[in-house]
Amino acid sequence: MIIAGIDEAGYGPVLGPLVVACCAVQTPDGEDLPCLWKRLSRVAGKSRCKKGLKLHINDSKAVYSPSQGLKELERAVLCLMAQAHRLAPGLPLELDAVLRCIDPSLVEHLPRYAWYRNGLEARYPIEVEGVSLQITSNAYRIESERSATHCVQYKAHVLLEKQFNDVVEKTRNKASASFSLVARHMDGLLRAYADQNLVIVCDRQGGREHYGHVLRTMFEEWSLEILSETEKRAEYRLSQGNRSARIIFCEKAESIALPVAAASMLAKYTREALMHRFNRYWQQQKPELAPTAGYYTDGWRFLRDIEDVRAKLGVRDGELIRSR
Q: Of 98, 146, 208, 288, whose CB neighbour count within 10 A is largest?
């Protein structure tokens, strides 16, 4: 069967990209929704391993914080990516190569933004050591083969600032813009895996409880069955001939399905890596500038701090500041 998870990072900030990521794992049929942490327990866990022998795979908020640093998040994301994109035993040790694997269209858009252009990194990987990463990646690959539990897809859709503003202007709704990226992932999963006992798990979208109408609208060629709809969980089945998928929207989805946690981590890592470039670019223009994560209060502080530089460079609001 294929268990897939979808999650986002960067929904609320005024600066930086919105990233919606997807992770799909192939595993033997069995339980209704098998626990992949158990199947990969030798090399992965929900908790941080003090000795660093296991990948920490959980909601990105549990794995990463500015005080903890990026190392644990980076290590797990790049190991999963190596398997999904068949990069082992080597890894692309250059950020643009990583981004090209995650979202091939993104690399075409990056040069349009001075703060996302290639070459702004002081080093890459950002915190984890390359040799250590390759050793961990190889150990993960061996255990995933032993347990027949393989990451087969690890992708993201990224909206940079101007793209984000353009989509929001068309939809008039930030939640709709985000869900359109979720639907793109679902469409790709249906096309690739609907004949392999596909289950797609997502966190609830914008507080919405019922998804039948939006699924009917976006997947008109598929028949829809509502399996259940409660306050905290909604389940549906899309069918087309002998192809089908069960779709689950629920609270705290990253705690019940490893692929949702892994998607959360990929979304966060992609955004953090791009914000690394963002901050280095503006600090090159103004060395005393304090970096930002782009969220509301500090994002507006940052914009005030670079007001003189922006005016000098002629950077327009729509290219830098997200409209919602």
A: 98
